Amino acid sequence: MPPAIETTDLVKEYGDLRALQELSLTVEEGEFFGLLGPNGAGKTTFINTLVGLVRKSGGEARVFGHDVEAEYRQARDAIGLAPQEFNVDRFFPIKEVLMHKAGYHGVPEDEAAERADEVLKRVGIYDKRDERFDWLSGGMKRRLLLARALVTDPDLLILDEPTAGVDVQLRHDLWELVTELNEEGTTILLTTHYIEEAERLCDRVAIMNEGRKVTVATPDELKERGTDTISVRLESGVSASAAADLETDLGAYAHEVTTTGDSLEVRVDDGGSTAPQLLNDLEARGHEIADLEITRTSLEEIFVDLTRSDDRTVTRSSASSADGADEADESRPSEREQEGVA
Amino acid sequence: MLSVGFRALFRREVLRFVRRPKNTFMPPAITNVLYFAVFGLILGGRIDQIAGFDYILFIVPGLVVLGAISNAFENASFSIFHGRWNEYIHETLTSPLSYAEMVVAYVAASAVRGLIVGVIIAVVGRLFVPISIEHGLFLVATMVVITALFAGFGIIGGLVARDFDDLTVMNQFILRPLVFFGAVFYSLETFEQSWQIQISLVNPMVYMVDSVRYGLLGHSDLIGVGILPTPYTEFAPLFALGVLTAATVLVLAIDVYLFKIGYGLTD
């Protein structure tokens, strides 16, 4: 089977603004794949390119082997999209909205009605089936977007920040539901700002920034790339000269040593394996240990570290100067976000 | 062409206006009661017969065309623009429907609304004056073609519009003036100067109104003013229908192209 999503050097330009920059990404069939990145990283642009709401400027994009432009009908038929925006037909009761969507995907009317009931029950808003979208609460609207994505029985479910602004209960309900779907074989592409969400749900995550793929890895692999902090409280304070000595003496394994009064913070690759050696070294230098704590690197810290830049939201192709530096423009990000491109 | 997806979109589009008769069918019915009452009964009684018909009967075809094409245009432009404005057109755009299926479904549903309004206006007219249909098949063919043509224009309008005011401008400042100068309320034969007729013939509405008048009343100004040379003069209505059909195909092809390139629809 071809990958669920395969893009090669995908580019999207808005005039001189480059929203996607040679993005190559593969999501295997059956995977639960996360897309992380700050606002303006190009996550939604990437998704919209797959479903036909954004036209690519260059490169290739395939869904289950179907080119998203040349074979758009097959590609779109395989995708169920729950977008960030509430882009739902306001003229009809929500059950009919779902029936229409199923119908567009070739599901006959009777079956579409059955499917609509089924997905409304699954997301927990069946009793609202005769209501219109505008009468639903925020959480119910979010559930409906998921129901609409599911009613076509997609092989690839794309969730664009599905839990943004929802309460804890709904977030957990959605997590449970999408986990079930993934276990049933549906490939899932999830974009989110919640690191915990990606860490908990995703097999692999891609971190994007400025339209580029920064890295792709499992959450555990990512965490291994970070550093741990060993915090040590000493029985007595450390003098300035002793602190300077420690920095030099521990340099073989410590990336950074910070001393404040009787507290010492040492940043190392692996806190668990380094702590015994650190204790030995401190005791050898006459320091008595009162307390010790190891703080593991969070995925969030790694994410922030990977996406940190002076200007994280906008890159202009015209700025691709000889040295490859990106030009900053702080006036445009909000415009693009308002247009739903970001 | 009549795939399940096409039928689903067509059904959705038809249900949207059928379920809101107060917004879609009542206004043209009331407006035309006023037209027939004022222009037909009150003023028409003081106007001599035109082309051998009482004035109130003469204006029936023009009013049918005015209502039918206006509604076909409004329906298509509103449906597309409202869908863009609230972004629910994404439900269609992200579906596996072909671009041709999308366009034909929108156009067909809008043409249906135009046809229904045309029938309503004819029925209203019948309340004021007896009407008999002279060339039924020709009338139906013409109505189908011109409502589809204006539904096709409506698609373009809905894609081009940047706000709701643009839609109003298109209807009020382009469509209606063309229709009113399209021989709805007068005959081309009333013009005494040939240049007046020549200018009128530039207006495509003249051919639509004349074709419907020919289908309904059996009278064609185009035959009278001789737009075709002898011995083909009598074929003027068929010629007009042929040109309108070709124009409709062209406009629908433009619609499909605009959908394909995502004009007004995609980033």
TrEMBL record, chain A:
Ranges for region Disordered: 309-342
Question: Basic and acidic residues composition bias: which ranges?
Answer: 330-342
- SMART domains, sorted: AAA
Q: Does the keyword Translocase apply?
A: no
**Record domain ABC transporter: where:** 5-235
- Answer yes or no on keyword Transmembrane: no
Give a Pfam family name: ABC_tran
Query: Care to name a GO molecular-function term for this sequence?
Result: ATP binding
Key words of the record: ATP-binding, Nucleotide-binding, Transport
Q: Which family does it belong to?
A: Belongs to the ABC transporter superfamily.
Q: What PANTHER family does UniProt report for this protein, alphabetically?
A: ABC TRANSPORTER ATP-BINDING PROTEIN, ABC TRANSPORTER ATP-BINDING PROTEIN NATA
Q: What is this protein called?
A: ABC transporter
Organism of this sequence: Haloterrigena salina JCM 13891
Q: What is the lineage of its organism?
A: Archaea, Methanobacteriati, Methanobacteriota, Stenosarchaea group, Halobacteria
TrEMBL record, chain B:
A Pfam short name: ABC2_membrane
Q: Where is the ABC transmembrane type-2 domain?
A: 19-262
Q: Give the transmembrane region(s).
A: 25-43, 55-73, 103-125, 137-161, 173-191, 238-259
GO CC, one annotated term: ATP-binding cassette (ABC) transporter complex
Keyword entries, A-Z: Membrane, Transmembrane, Transmembrane helix
For this protein, the record's InterPro entries field holds: ABC-2_transport_permease, ABC2_TM, ABC2_TM_bact-type, ABC_2_transport
Q: Which GO terms describe its molecular function?
A: ABC-type transporter activity
Q: Topology in the membrane?
A: Multi-pass membrane protein
State where the protein is found. Membrane
Q: What is this protein called?
A: ABC transporter
Source organism of the structure? Haloterrigena salina JCM 13891
